UniProtKB/TrEMBL annotation:
<feature type="compositionally biased region" description="Polar residues">
    <location>
        <begin position="1"/>
        <end position="20"/>
    </location>
</feature>
<feature type="transmembrane region" description="Helical">
    <location>
        <begin position="163"/>
        <end position="186"/>
    </location>
</feature>
<feature type="transmembrane region" description="Helical">
    <location>
        <begin position="135"/>
        <end position="157"/>
    </location>
</feature>
<feature type="transmembrane region" description="Helical">
    <location>
        <begin position="353"/>
        <end position="377"/>
    </location>
</feature>
<feature type="transmembrane region" description="Helical">
    <location>
        <begin position="207"/>
        <end position="230"/>
    </location>
</feature>
<keyword id="KW-1133">Transmembrane helix</keyword>
<protein>
    <submittedName>
        <fullName>Uncharacterized protein</fullName>
    </submittedName>
</protein>
<feature type="transmembrane region" description="Helical">
    <location>
        <begin position="327"/>
        <end position="347"/>
    </location>
</feature>
<keyword id="KW-0812">Transmembrane</keyword>
<feature type="transmembrane region" description="Helical">
    <location>
        <begin position="236"/>
        <end position="262"/>
    </location>
</feature>
<feature type="region of interest" description="Disordered">
    <location>
        <begin position="1"/>
        <end position="37"/>
    </location>
</feature>
<keyword id="KW-0472">Membrane</keyword>
Length: 409
């Protein structure tokens, strides 16, 4: 093993165990902290690891130091973090939790209303935390259960097993939608719980469901009806069974587009839409879908609804982004559903081909649109941060600490 040279560099081979290496280093440096305190060491500026490959014929080195691209104290940071300047300490709503919600004495909307120079932060992120994994796993299960299973079971059982159609769809209908139905039951139970943590803002009723719940009822009803009608005859109506996936686009895209139309025309809400009461101004459709999914399905609860409302009211760029996303998702969904309906009913297209197209295309489209949305929203939120810093320079921030929405524990 090489010793410690004049360049203040420590080298260690892969054959050394941590204990052996630290022991030899301690003996070589009797006056160092490593020799006096076991298990601690003052590392040099550059640490080089020399190790042999599997054939023992050559060595490679990795250096970590001030001149390396990434140092130990420089973690990964997104572009939005890189653009931020140092600011005074203030209550960050990203720290809002269920326990914190129970003991505070005011809402996040009140807090950000008293501190208009602060850009409201959302207590949810895709970068860390268990909430993101819950949504991610659910999305994967929906894709597998909603698209892959109907396609794989039908073509495998028909062409490989030569099974009759009514038996095939007896199996498909008994399996399809399992994760969706379970998640729908869980979110409904959360909204009905005595504790109002998951409910929309402005209501305490246990029977006041949010917009996504009602949209889910419409979608599940339409899909179930199509499955029953198409698979009930002994000779199944395959073209009817092509329509469940387009029906999902019709239902969700139609609800999204109709709500967005109300927002564009400045029509008042005919009834409660999540956190928007009857007679109030309707917000873009994507607003309600995001609010309901993160608050209930991801478990972020009312703190997210409050922070989301505060962000929408405070940031013009955020409002513009949500309106564009509402149009971006609703109009193409309805157009795609119409095109798939034509494919399903036109007899020039074989029913077996139409079945695969109608079940696969909607989910592929959702994946592509989701990828575009992520890139688009990241760009808009970076611009939002820049515009906010220009409007409220960091050095002028003066937060009212007595307005922090936390009650004394």
């Amino acid at each position: 093993m090489p010793g410690i040279g004049q360049d203040n560099t420590v080298s260690r081979s892969l054959s050394d165990t941590p204990n052996e290496a630290s022991g030899r280093a301690a003996r070589a440096l009797p006056n160092s902290p490593l020799g006096s305190v076991q298990g601690t060491a003052s590392l040099p500026n550059i640490v080089t690891f020399a190790h042999a490959d599997s054939f023992g014929s050559r060595t490679s080195q990795r250096a970590f130091g001030p001149e390396s691209p990434r140092t130990a104290d420089a973690g990964r940071r997104s572009l939005s973090y890189a653009l931020r300047q140092e600011a005074d300490v203030y209550y960050d709503s990203r720290a809002a939790t269920h326990d914190e919600w129970k003991r505070r004495d005011r809402t996040l909307q009140d807090y950000y209303g008293n501190n208009p120079q602060l850009l409201p932060q959302l207590p949810f992120t895709w970068h860390h935390g268990w909430k993101r994994w819950r949504l991610f796993v659910f999305a994967i299960l929906v894709f597998i259960d909603g698209s892959l299973i109907p396609i794989v079971l039908y073509y495998a059982m028909r062409y490989a097993g030569h099974v009759q159609g009514w038996i095939i769809f007896a199996v498909v209908t008994s399996i399809w939608g399992g994760p969706t139905y379970i998640e729908f039951g869980i979110r409904t139970w959360r909204l009905m719980k005595k504790e109002r943590f998951y409910r929309p803002l402005g209501t305490n009723s246990r029977w006041c469901f949010d917009t996504l719940n009602w949209a889910s009822v419409l979608t599940i009803t339409a899909v179930t009806a199509l499955f029953i009608v198409g698979s009930a005859p002994h000779i199944v109506w395959l073209r009817v069974l092509c329509m469940p996936a387009p029906a999902i686009l019709y239902s969700l895209g139609g609800v999204l587009g109709l709500i967005t139309l109300f927002n564009y025309m400045n029509w008042p809400a005919p009834f409660r839409l999540s956190s928007t009461g009857k007679g109030e101004k309707v917000l873009p459709g994507v607003y309600y879908f995001i609010e309901d999914v993160v608050a209930v399905n991801a478990g972020a609860g009312r703190p997210y609804r409050e922070a989301f409302a505060a962000r929408y009211n405070a940031s013009p760029r955020f409002r513009q982004m949500l309106f564009k996303q509402s149009v971006f998702w609703s109009v193409p969904a309805l157009l795609l559903a119409g095109a798939l309906t034509v494919i399903a009913v036109v007899h020039e297209v074989p029913a077996t081909v139409a079945y695969g197209v109608c079940w696969a295309v909607p989910f592929i489209w959702c994946a592509v649109w989701g990828w575009i949305t992520v890139i688009w929203c990241k760009r808009d939120m970076v611009r939002e941060r820049v515009e906010w810093e220009e409007k409220y320079p960091t050095e002028k921030h003066e937060t009212a600490t007595n307005n922090i929405p936390l009650a004394t524990v």
